[in-house]
Amino acid sequence: MATAFGLPFGTALRREPAEGPVRPQRPLGKLVWLHAPSRESARPMAELGRRIILDEGFPVLLTTHAPVSSGGILIVQTPPPDTQAAAADFLEHWRPDAAFMAEGELRPSLIQAASDRGVPLALVDGVAPRILPGRESWWPGQMRNLLGRFSHIFTVDEAAARAFRKAGSPTQVTQVAGRLEEGSLALPCTEAERAAMARLLATRQVWLAAGLPIQEEAAVIGAHHAALKLAHRMLLIVVPQEPDRAGPLAERFEAEGWKVARRAADEEPDAETEVFVADGAAELGLWYRLAQVTWLGGSLSTGCVLDPLEAASLGSALIHGPRAGSHGVTLGRLTAARASMTVETARDLAEALADLLAPDRVARLAHAGWAVASEGTEVTDRVVALAGRLVEREP
């Protein structure tokens, strides 16, 4: 019978307490438990889990409320309620041999119960310690007691390390490590098609409006009009936020006198094409590879639609507005590293695009963005090795 880590496919499932998620049978052998409290930490923790599986050979359970793309190799569950009964039931079922928790979220019942069972605890990507809302206790020293149960606390920077030490984490186990690796962010594309399209575009400058909402269409049209005065062969590729907007958007461009090609009609951007309208996000990996500059749609109006690091990891320089949406942490990192350009208005977008017509400027911005998307490999290597030692109870 086919199995995954000793778990037969088709095995009966049982439910978490309090109407929680379906819980599969525990795999055979050792098991590492990871916990990601937010969307920002879910991806690097999923990558850590993937690396533990591939490098150390242990199955991995990841608990998180965030959507996770794990390639099917992780066991992904929502965390149980932080009560003594739910924590005991969770730990009795999974029997983890080591646990890694991200950011600094402290779940008192789970941490105490795991520690009492002798599960080695480590905290990674530490930003600031915080007790799960609603689980704060009136008795003094609660946070100090919880932090004292971790054998390793790795923070993202020195400011975070100071916050943990001030909250009571032992100095000898608290150290700056940096951020975990984000994981494979490079969206796929067909190489033959990329090469063919690159030959077709030749030396033309290309910019991409990715995840463009209707509220920002006028801003992008105005920016492209201004850019063409400086680089008359420049091509705009548009991926609307809503795929069914592709047709009407192409008609809008055509009505305003633009030379338009449509992906949905199997048209190609020839030498006369000024705007190329794609019809969905499925081919973003191709467009990011072709565009020297990407405008992050939604960031001027409703909130950034797409993950900025997906474009940065493929070498496209980023321009975005002030509205981060659910990508605030990521855009904050890019801004701090001077790896993106922030604009406040539609006029600013046109000026930023004109500024990035200079090859040296767009190259510097793209390289800085790629560096942010690629950081953390050494940190992940270190934590993977630690996972192996903790599971085997080595010093």
From TrEMBL:
The 3-deoxy-D-manno-octulosonic-acid transferase N-terminal domain is annotated at 27-179
Main location, first listed in the record: membrane
Catalyzed reactions per annotation: lipid IVA (E. coli) + CMP-3-deoxy-beta-D-manno-octulosonate = alpha-Kdo-(2->6)-lipid IVA (E. coli) + CMP + H(+)
Pathway, per record:
Bacterial outer membrane biogenesis; LPS core biosynthesis
Q: Does the keyword Membrane apply?
A: yes
GO MF terms, alphabetically ordered: Kdo transferase activity
Instruction: Tell me which GO cellular component terms the UniProt record holds.
Output: plasma membrane
Q: Which GO terms describe its biological process?
A: lipid A biosynthetic process; lipopolysaccharide core region biosynthetic process
Q: Where in the cell is it found?
A: Cell membrane
Give yes or no: UniProt keyword S-adenosyl-L-methionine.
no
Q: What is its EC number?
A: 2.4.99.12
Q: Which UniProt keywords apply?
A: Cell membrane, Lipopolysaccharide biosynthesis, Membrane, Transferase
This chain's function reads: Involved in lipopolysaccharide (LPS) biosynthesis. Catalyzes the transfer of 3-deoxy-D-manno-octulosonate (Kdo) residue(s) from CMP-Kdo to lipid IV(A), the tetraacyldisaccharide-1,4'-bisphosphate precursor of lipid A.
- Report the sequence similarity comment from the record: Belongs to the glycosyltransferase group 1 family.
- This chain belongs to the protein called 3-deoxy-D-manno-octulosonic acid transferase
Task: Please give the organism.
Answer: Cereibacter azotoformans
